[in-house]
Amino acid sequence: MAIQLTSExxxxxxxxxxxxxxxxxxxxxxxxxxxxRSIHLADDGTIVYLELLExxxxxxxxxxxxxxxxxxxxxxxxDGERCIEVTGKPVRVHITGPIFERYYVDVRSxxxxxxxxxxxxxxxxxxxxxxxxxxxxxxxxERPFFRHLxxxxxxxxxxxx
Length: 161
Hints:
Blueprint: H1 7-14, E1 19-25, E2 31-35, E3 40-41, E4 47-51, H2 57-67, E5 72-77, E6 83-94, H3 97-111, E7 118-129, H4 132-142, H5 149-153
Antiparallel strand pairs: 1-2, 1-5, 3-4, 4-7, 5-6, 6-7
């Protein structure tokens, strides 16, 4: 089911200093990750990914994701403190038409003599906050038995204080 991202999550996508990683899987379940600066949000809240190479592993896996209803993820990392993972379903790829044309002109103006294989549209379904300190606090609160025994027996032994 499609979700809307919060304004903070949208700002993270819009930040030009973030690193965005698209992760897809092939038919055998083998993951493939790709850092890509083209990943951004469209005005309607969907994720847009511009694939430049027809023969790329990402493109192949995205096609299979549409055929076999597979989920992909986009990790958006800002500065060690801000990091989210958005999982979603690829629902469409534009290979012609006005949307494709707009991105094709933009890509060629920025990168020169390159092709644009397709404009992939991914519908966000879930967002997970991947901030380590937030996840650590939640784990210690909700699952205290996950703590190593040495931390329980001698809590200050490894402290930097």
